[in-house]
Write a structure and sequence with these properties.
Helix content is 77%, strand content 0%. The protein has 160 residues and is mainly alpha-helical. The termini are far apart.
Length: 160
């Protein structure tokens, strides 16, 4: 239900995301890390997506919560045992780092780039052309933003 509410087009987007978050939290009470680690990790990914898109609350705090959810999922998911969900968690974490408000911008972009390259180890042009293309687009944007960040940093140091 959490996924359905996250993608729901009827109703108010903010309210749908709040319902998605509630549903994902309820799912985590059923799918515990101990009893069903794979489903628990997938529920963490879904919760991370809902927090990253969340409209209510402080944007920076929502993004931090999304990052936390992805980290938790990646503590359980492995590339070998569940490569697709592992890669999806990497992509989502990369997007969240790319949009992150807290922390140093360059470090966030470097972490996003690292996540994208990890995902590309699993999601190739041949086996998943759509996600491969999305990752390529995100990598171009992240590298461009990182270059701009380095230029601004160098410019401000030269001006000191």
């Amino acid at each position: 239900m959490g996924i359905a509410y996250s993608k729901r087009i009827r109703g108010e987007k903010a309210a749908n995301l709040e319902k998605a978050i509630r549903c994902d939290h309820l799912a985590l009470k059923v799918f515990t890390r101990e009893a069903d680690p794979a489903e628990w990790a997938r529920a963490q990914i879904n919760l991370g997506v809902a927090y990253s898109e969340r409209i209510r609350g402080e944007k920076a705090a929502n993004l931090e919560e999304a990052i936390r959810c992805y980290y938790l999922a990646l503590e359980v998911l492995t590339r070998e045992a569940d490569p697709v969900y592992w890669a999806i968690a990497q992509i989502n974490q990369g997007v969240t780092y790319q949009n992150r408000i807290r922390g140093e911008k360059a470090a966030n972009l470097e972490e996003a780039i690292r996540c994208y390259y990890l995902a590309l180890e699993v999601l190739t042009r041949e086996n998943d052309p759509y996600n491969w293309e999305v990752i390529q687009h995100n990598l171009i944007q992240a590298h461009t933003d990182l270059l701009q960040e380095h230029r601004q940093s160098q410019s401000s140091r030269l001006g000191d």
